[in-house]
Specification:
CATH topology of the largest domain: Arc Repressor Mutant, subunit A
Number of domains: 2
Number of helices: 6
Helix content: 55-70%
Number of strands: 0
Largest sheet: none
Radius of gyration: 23 Å
Distance between the termini: 49 Å
Order of helices and strands: HHHHHH
CATH architecture of the largest domain: Orthogonal Bundle
Shape: elongated
CATH class of the largest domain: Mainly Alpha
Length: 105
């Protein structure tokens, strides 16, 4: 393997998404290539920073939750707008996953 093969594969390498043979080839290349090791270190730093940012994400306040849900309740009834019921349902599901909607803790 050379740098041209390794650099695009570093992210999947970090994430453990490569087949063993490919990962072994990258590991062998990294042992002798300072430039690719530096790229790997940069990716590790980016990954750690993103994980730290996600870990500090706070849930929205109850006031915001109430405002978003009230705004959804003001949407015209589904029968007056084709497809609105589906969109409102999808929005509510997404808000629940984000801990904004009813049933959120």
């Amino acid at each position: 393997m050379d740098c041209q093969d390794v650099k695009p594969a570093l992210s999947p390498y970090i994430d453990g998404e490569l087949p063993r043979e490919d990962a072994a080839g990258i590991t062998a290349h990294l042992a002798g290539c300072v430039a690719c090791r530096r790229s790997l270190e940069e990716l590790h730093l980016i990954s750690a920073t993103l994980h730290a940012l996600l870990a500090t994400r706070r849930a929205p306040s109850p006031v915001l939750r109430a405002r978003v849900m009230a705004a959804l309740d003001e949407v015209a009834p589904a029968r007056t707008r084709p497809g609105m019921a589906r969109h409102t349902r999808l929005i509510r599901q997404h808000l629940r996953r984000m801990r904004l909607g009813p049933g959120a803790r």
